[in-house]
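Q: I'm a student working through a structural biology exercise. My instructor gave each of us a protein and asked us to get a predicted structure, then write a short paragraph describing it. Mine is DUF4440 domain-containing protein. I'm not confident about reading structure output yet, so if you can add a plain explanation after the tokens, that would really help. Here is the sequence I was given:
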Amino acid sequence: MPETYSDVAALEALRWDGLLAADTDALATLFHDDLAYTHSNGLVDSKGVFLQRLASGGLRYLDISPSDQRITLHDNTAVVTGLVVLTTRAGDSQAVTPIRYTAVWTRGERWQHVAWHSSPASA
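A: Happy to help. First, here is the predicted structure for DUF4440 domain-containing protein. I'll explain a few features afterward.
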């Protein structure tokens, strides 16, 4: 179980890797059942809907370039903020989108990603 900033950073790296690979099994383990995933366009997905979009290929992450990551720990909660440039494909549309994000992890039996919120940002 992560106890340090580097451990939480490692979980974030696993999440990025899972998104790139569309590894829904790995992501299902990392994601809390109550996940609220707010995309930069305002669309909000539950864990099930988000994983289904990845599994079906309806949403595909082609490149993920995070930077400016900051992690704060508060008892059983980790808050990660940063900048990321995402290259995605949804249907026939491909987009390169710089966003500012907040990722929230909570620790129960294990650390799990419970919330994501992102907003458009200039690169």
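A: Here are two points you could use in your paragraph. The chain has one domain: 5-120. The helical segments are 5-21, 24-30, 47-56. It's a good idea to check both against the output above yourself.
Q: Great, thank you!
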